[in-house]
Amino acid sequence: MTNNQLMSRLSLNQITTEQWNLQEAVEGCLRHDVPRISVWRHKIEEVGLKQASRLIKGAGLQVSSICRGGMFPAATAKERAERLDDNKRAVEEAAELDTDTLVLVCGPSADKDIDTARAQVAEGIDSLVPFAKDYGVKLAIEPLHPMFAADRSVINTMNQASTIAENYNQNEVGVIVDVYHVWWDPNLYAEIERAKGRILGFHVSDWKVPMADMFKGRFMMGDGVIEINRMRKAVEQAGYNGPIEVEIINQSLWDRAGDDVLQEVKQSFAKYV
Amino acid sequence: MTNNQLMSRLSLNQITTEQWNLQEAVEGCLRHDVPRISVWRHKIEEVGLKQASRLIKGAGLQVSSICRGGMFPAATAKERAERLDDNKRAVEEAAELDTDTLVLVCGPSADKDIDTARAQVAEGIDSLVPFAKDYGVKLAIEPLHPMFAADRSVINTMNQASTIAENYNQNEVGVIVDVYHVWWDPNLYAEIERAKGRILGFHVSDWKVPMADMFKGRFMMGDGVIEINRMRKAVEQAGYNGPIEVEIINQSLWDRAGDDVLQEVKQSFAKYV
């Protein structure tokens, strides 16, 4: 793959420039020749879906995914139904923004019972599939690092994500490979191969020691220990040649000018992805 | 199991009261009727092995394990040989203190190549086994949480630990089940069953959100989300009825009086383990 081909796959995951609102992010992408963006729902909410759609389409940007649906487990059936409704709104937003990929961060347990929470995730996805299919939107299960099992997602390995996804057609449910969440997995490359045909996204950042903050501690590609290039080649081997989202959640990046961040993103993307 | 039987299995892992030197920890165990202790090597070094042995045996305390050997991967063959020598000293210390269990924290990669690091762990253990066997000391591989893959251990699941252990006899190599490190694992209970006959220790603490510090952020049993009692019953089902070490690495506990900490340890052990 030439460098130009690689750069054409770059997508700015909007959380990387959390300091920008949607309009600023769209304009930033145009200024820096970034052809794609992954849009977060709290940024859509700020301007409303119609205006978000106008901004993005007017700029000719492609939307690689919507972040995020999920958060299925809850203590009561009523709450779980409300979560499902919210996921349906996320599907509608994805369709309106012309992306076929809704990223699912599946949610933590409401109590100590992690097995039940995992079952509720599977049930939630099962309930959402027909609705999403009507809109032409695929559900992309993103396994989160096991250190988030208590507060963000009880789906923590590629194995879990693929086991759920395989209950459905490839155009209904797939998985996201985010290097930060899965790089440690002893079965990583076998699981990437297994996910062939179901990989709906590839997210990059890096893991560096010491990590001051579990949530906002991700680093720029190349600054840490993750074999990003090896993983990129593995997902390509498994048939994935779609957008590559740069998703770096890091307070120190948010404290800088967005243009500086985006420039550095492009440089380290070209060098280390 | 009666409460008395359970309490007779309690072992103070010395890092829980890091503010105490070895003599203070031994005296604390006597004052609080804690029958066992897990000894850290930096605490032995402070007083010397002979004096450590006199203190512990004079008090009639049983040593549940020595923490810790391991740290096998390194960039050069010379460094790896030095690590192996250090592990042999740890075996000698275990034998001198009349414990048959040396806990292995296997070490991080020297660079980005995690596969090679994992191979170096397997090689290191293979080199250490005959030496340890001569001393009657078993090597207890402790899988560490995946969030420590970059800085403490590339062995991150029960599956990895058992896969290495199964190359040897049960009296040579086994595994440690530490609830903090493995509670998130979707295969946990199957892996505990698989480890039957090879479980050499059960360590308890708790995981609570938010976690301010990945290393020194462990909580008292009952304060977090881990199903400790369920896991204790599972390891018993798998034949383990030995010492249960309380290993809580938490700066706020170290800032308190050791006697207060030990009292609280006993209370939450009785209630939640």
Automatic annotation (TrEMBL), chains A, B:
Keywords: Isomerase. It comes from the Bacteria. This is Sugar phosphate isomerase/epimerase family protein. It comes from Gracilibacillus pellucidus.
